[in-house]
Amino acid sequence: MKITIAQLNFRIGDFEGNLAKMLKAIETAKAEKSDIIVFGELAVCGYPPRDFLEFEDFIIRCENAVSELCKVAHGIAIAVGSPTKNPVIEGKDLFNSAYFLVEGEIHHIANKALLPTYDIFDEYRYFEPAKDFKVVEFKGQKIALTVCEDIWNISNENPLYTICPMDEMMPQQPDLILNLSASPFSYKQAEERLRIVRANVQRYGIPIFYVNHVGAQTELIFDGGSIVMCANGDVYEELPYFEEAIKTYELSKVLSGEGKIGEQPKDKMRLIHDALITGVKDYFGKLGFKKAILGLSGGIDSAVTLVVAARALGAENVRVVLMPSQFSSDHSVDDARILAETLGVEYDIVPIKSIYESFKNSLETQFEGLPFNIAEENLQARSRGMILMAMSNKFGHIVLNTSNKSEAAVGYGTLYGDMCGGLSVIGDLYKMEVFELARYMNKDGEVIPINTIVKPPSAELRPNQKDSDSLPDYEILDEILFQYIENRKGPKELIAMGFEEALVKRTLRMVNINEFKRFQTAPTLRISPKAFGMGRRMPIVAKYLS
Amino acid sequence: MKITIAQLNFRIGDFEGNLAKMLKAIETAKAEKSDIIVFGELAVCGYPPRDFLEFEDFIIRCENAVSELCKVAHGIAIAVGSPTKNPVIEGKDLFNSAYFLVEGEIHHIANKALLPTYDIFDEYRYFEPAKDFKVVEFKGQKIALTVCEDIWNISNENPLYTICPMDEMMPQQPDLILNLSASPFSYKQAEERLRIVRANVQRYGIPIFYVNHVGAQTELIFDGGSIVMCANGDVYEELPYFEEAIKTYELSKVLSGEGKIGEQPKDKMRLIHDALITGVKDYFGKLGFKKAILGLSGGIDSAVTLVVAARALGAENVRVVLMPSQFSSDHSVDDARILAETLGVEYDIVPIKSIYESFKNSLETQFEGLPFNIAEENLQARSRGMILMAMSNKFGHIVLNTSNKSEAAVGYGTLYGDMCGGLSVIGDLYKMEVFELARYMNKDGEVIPINTIVKPPSAELRPNQKDSDSLPDYEILDEILFQYIENRKGPKELIAMGFEEALVKRTLRMVNINEFKRFQTAPTLRISPKAFGMGRRMPIVAKYLS
Predict the structure, then answer these.
(1) Is the CB of A422 less than 8 angstroms away from the CB of B516?
(2) What is each CA distance from B137 to B36, B134, B176, in whole angstroms?
(3) Can you tell me the mean pLDDT for B76-89?
(4) Three-class SS string for A290-348?
(5) Mutate to test the interface with B, among A217, A370, A543 (most CBs of B within 10 A)
(6) Is B281 considered catalytic here?
(7) What's the gap in Å between the CA of B419 and the closest CA on chain A?
(8) Are the CB atoms for B130 and B28 separated by under 8 Å?
(9) pLDDT of B177-233, one tens digit each?
């Protein structure tokens, strides 16, 4: 028996496009005389469809797509993810299902039992969990057809669910597991995915064909890395990250391990680098945009953002604006210009002094006699934001936001100013990770000027301003933030870890009182296990650690 | 037996403040010789605590608050909502619980079984559903202690859950129901709440004491309206909306109906008006702010927003800025000025012409030879946004956003321009509802100038511009939007309802492609059953009806 896995990049709600992509993959699989082709979770509509699932019209279009796939399910069985209607009136209206289509008929439907509802996942919002579990019989093989999370409730210290679908199916003696997934990237995910898949084959003693999506859906990036694993826990093959792949396997070889290829290399910075490029490329491509614009300050954040943009979209599709003020140092403008020239990116220089002056003049009466403060600092950042937005409106660019996660965490940024833009590219990288990524980008030769990497970070909104004037050193700040945000450590635990009490309290307070700013930020490409945005939901009005 | 219900306004994560408020209510109840006092759902930490629940430290503080309440549970039993830890390792780590404290001890804990996970609710994100149900025995009464949604799975055409906790408890023959709720306001909610409560007493034949929260938590407004209902379905009393109330009832009288008071009046516009005032008042009060600022254009949206702000915060705490451009009509400035003077609100006039010119001059090279387009329109809106933000930064105001739901739906607004602000006050009111609210505000005499209400809506960003140049008439637009957003009707259903096909497609497309703008909008006070924001989660990058 031959099994094909199709690791594809779908567009949410693009029923025609997704179907066409699947039909082509089926042609390929048929040409290779495959017996089964397997697509990812909710492949017909793309993942995550979010509240589109509440529209009857949307579900009908999913059903229509499955009908079209049924028509070509001749000589090959098709396993494909789609929402289906729950026939029982009590409970949620939908199931998150895996169809198994054989000879023009729906041979079997397996419904997902474990509905991830944490971090960026909202599946119980839409789906009723499955209560019964049956293997599929096909060509003499008994197949455990599972959807994503259904294989994830083993080998965890603190299991999230009270049942384990594979345990339920084992009495039926399945020969192999097919898993249809949509499992988003984080820099830890590829390892974690292999660990869980291996825990399954080792517990159940049968091989698995695990199919993931690839490509970005707004802030979520799917890395692919689909897995074929032998029953002994050896990786038969791990498909590449961040690209589509269609590949056919002979089951007998997977069972014997003959011809196994093994896994992909997993370097954190390379994964992040490639993930961000995928994120930018798909954000633009799937929205039908080509051109990006961003403000280039000479600092590290905009430099790294620009390199990602140029690599994702092509230097010819990226434009940068240098917007010096009276507080900008000469070297900033030079560093920015050098980078733009190195990359071959078009740049404009638009000084903000006259705009800033006209605002100050217009508010002369109101501000009379009052000292320079954050109002004037923000006016500069907002003048820059407005220039970028005006260019974007005039020429059809999307503005890329250049904030990092440390800034976003502590609110060190100006709403509608440097926080503007349609997509936050590096907003899930702490400042120290931004430096690391910059060095990774320079690994084959200096792309980002070394001066941009070594100079002390500064917002340049006041004379001789440095980030360290108002923030703790990033080495320490980032570590506290990581423990608070990623690891959910509270103040007592942080102090017990050795961080200074006053610093812990100040930092946590900054994070919590700045929720209002993050609420209005662009979607942020998620590369960590806990990004700001849909995966971290906090009250704005609250009094906790604030 | 006497039962006290405490309809209180908590602050999320303000453990000391919430506890102090409860201790005071307990004193009151003790003075009235009450046997039981009932607080709302998750009262110790406030509702919704959202991802604070993922912090061990937060849960410990909840437990500490319950311990403090235990200490005063002498001579009176206390029913209070709090998260509790799930002792079983499998499943979610927490329960959403109702404690029943008697004589310094935890007498009983009832866990919530039905975990709302739809619209603005995310409870399965945090909580494991209860599987067993026991009544509490206290002073000869058997009490069905329930948490909010646990009584909501009856009398619905399409029940969301497969079990019904009260059905499970009825074999134990409870004498009454206590329900600890946190049920947010919409203009339909008070009626719906009464319907469900009545369905329960009629099905089970026992009275209910239903306790709700009051006050706003960022975008969610809790209206109170706690209910004591006789076993025959008569309303013994419905507590007032939008104010705290502590009231003690003699159970025997509730059983006989003696002295019943009945329900509150339910006028849609009055409910919305009072809800918005609560929303603004608590947003400011709970954040520790006093002063608001907004741009007053002479149009209906900013006029209605201003009246809400002045009534919520006091005219002395509100400042408005009139920011005319070359496209502003004289009557706009007059209408704005008259309103500010009528309300006694401080106003500034800051023309934007020179700022706008300085932007245009700065971008002269880039924009040379290109026609006036949306870039210039948006520059005006953004100049206004920047002026408001600068004033806010200088004087410590919060900027109020003045967009309505129709605009937010179709993207008829400028990001970082008129879409700026910390809180969207009328962003859940369709344009026609804004007119209706304006007329309601004028019911006892003209507050909002009649000219503001009767003139055709215009953004005034181009000569003689009218909203109707680029949008369908609001009468029709609002109806399509309502059917699409509130009722989730798809294009075919809308066309079948009689709306013109081209108009339907154009409108739905506008809604869907503008998700990116709404993503970056301020939190919006929710007054409808389906508001933009946390209750409506849509992909930004998608191709569905777009």
Answers:
(1) yes
(2) 12, 9, 11
(3) 98
(4) CCEEEECCCCHHHHHHHHHHHHHHCHHHEEEEECCCCCCCHHHHHHHHHHHHHHCCEEE
(5) A543
(6) no
(7) 10
(8) no
(9) 999 999 999 999 999 999 999 999 999 999 999 999 999 999 999 999 999 999 999
